[in-house]
Specification:
Elements lengths: L20 E4 L1 H14 L3 E8 L2 E6 L10 E6 L2 E6 L16 H4 L3 E10 L2 E5 L8 E6 L1 H14 L7 H7 L3 E5 L25 E8 L2 E8 L2 H7 L5 E2 L2 H16 L10 H5 L7 H6 L7 H5 L6 E7 L10 E8 L9 E2 L2 E2 L4 H20 L9 H4 L7 H8 L5 H5 L7
Length: 405
């Protein structure tokens, strides 16, 4: 490992103090950033295009990032389009979230092997390198904050999550092009990340050229920033960066009174609208699988079969993501407590928006819109919550929920 300090702005430590801001070239600057992080011993992961989708994967160079990409994102719809722009961050995220790197969808937690007439227990080794996450939006940083509160800030922290989360270096990015399903400003967020990062990028493409304004918020971030080719940011650059934020905010009208949702949803458990939602909901669990804050998981034990019928030589315990939409998720006493689609959707929505703050002191939703975008029935959590709190009628949201375009 390089003597460079490892990263880790604490996500819920409050607003960070920006100290140091440089303007770098999108191509050479990003190349240098990724090379410096790799040289410092990080596994560098970030957005790239594969199979006409934005996915998070290992990065080797700046050109691995999406270039000239835009996204058409609506309820039940996500389409990647190419344009002639040289921008690197003019898209909104796909189904992937950073959760997969700190809480993998499937992971072995224990292996028991037969050896020399006895049994040997083995646990997987922790990751050999800390992560460097490139291009995290504010909603994604707040999602990591939520997972930290659930899986770290408890009496029994998850050791596997802690090992992967430790020393993570985060390069955040200001979101300049919100989608139709985004509602972060209604739920306490915004287009510009304010905490939880080491470096923050704001991409500018205007009359003064295509450039990246990079701000440092931690000592590890400043170490990397000082090694990048570029120049000190000017007042003109800062004004242009503020303009990116202001234009993005203008595209994000208030859709729900986020801070008041726990109180407004209290008493809605018998609302007739749950049954109307269930008529459209497929109970497929897509919303929970793409959600960056859902943390439900289950454990399986598997024993390998032997061809000759002798005693097995290995048993593996594994952990994988689970969903509250699964029929057996609420099994108690041999039967499901939530046996209907309406009850399962109610559990999901009210846990996110009503009861999560009581458990963890923060809402369970970050307003990223993934659940709405990737719902095959185009069910919009914002529209459904609006009906439940009396801010809209079923007829008013019916057209929007008619199905994917």
């Amino acid at each position: 490992r390089s003597p460079l300090p490892v990263g880790g702005a604490v996500a819920h430590a409050g607003l960070v103090v920006i100290d140091g801001s440089r303007v770098v070239d999108p191509r050479s600057g990003l190349d240098a950033m990724l090379q410096e992080l790799a040289r410092a011993g990080y596994r560098v992961v970030g957005p790239t295009v594969r199979d006409r989708a934005i996915v998070y994967d290992d990065l080797a160079a700046g050109d691995d990032l999406p270039t000239g990409c835009a996204v058409d994102q609506q309820p039940g719809r996500w389409r990647l389009d190419a344009n002639a722009e040289p921008t690197r961050f003019g898209w909104t995220p796909g189904a992937d979230s950073w959760k997969q790197f700190v809480m993998p969808p499937h992971q072995d937690v224990l292996r028991i092997r037969r050896h020399d007439g006895s049994w040997v227990a083995e646990t997987p080794l922790p990751p050999d390198r800390p992560l460097a996450l490139i291009g995290a939006r504010d909603c994604e940083l707040r999602a990591l904050d939520v997972l930290d509160r659930v899986l770290l800030d408890t009496d029994h922290p998850d050791p596997r999550y802690a090992a992967r989360r430790r020393d993570v270096f985060i390069v955040a990015v200001t979101c300049g092009v919100p989608s139709a399903t985004c509602w972060c400003t209604s739920i306490g967020g915004g287009p510009q990340p304010r905490h939880g990062f080491d470096l923050r990028i704001t991409e500018l493409h205007d009359a003064d050229g295509h450039r990246l304004v990079v701000d440092a918020a931690t000592d590890p971030g400043r170490e990397i920033l000082h090694r990048l080719p570029g120049r000190a940011a000017t007042d003109i650059d800062h004004v242009a960066a503020d303009g990116v934020v202001e234009r993005a905010v203008d595209q994000l009208p208030l859709r729900l009174p986020g801070p008041d949702l726990p109180e407004l949803l209290d008493g809605a458990s018998l609302h007739p609208h749950w049954d109307r939602i269930a008529e459209r909901c497929l109970s497929c669990g897509n919303c929970t699988m793409v959600c960056p804050t859902c943390f439900c998981s289950t454990f399986d034990d598997a024993t390998a079969l032997t061809e000759d019928g002798s005693a097995p030589i290995e048993t593996v315990r594994s952990r994988h993501w689970a969903s509250c939409f699964e029929f057996d998720h609420s099994n108690l006493g041999g039967r499901p407590v939530r046996a209907t689609t309406a009850s399962r959707y109610r559990q999901w929505l009210t846990h996110k928006l009503e009861t999560w703050p009581q458990q963890f002191g923060v809402t369970g939703c970050v307003g990223c819109g993934r659940c709405t975008t990737w719902c095959p029935a185009a069910i919009d959590i914002v529209h459904e919550a609006a009906v439940l709190i009396g801010a809209a009628t079923p007829d008013e949201v019916g057209a929007a929920n008619a199905g994917p375009p």
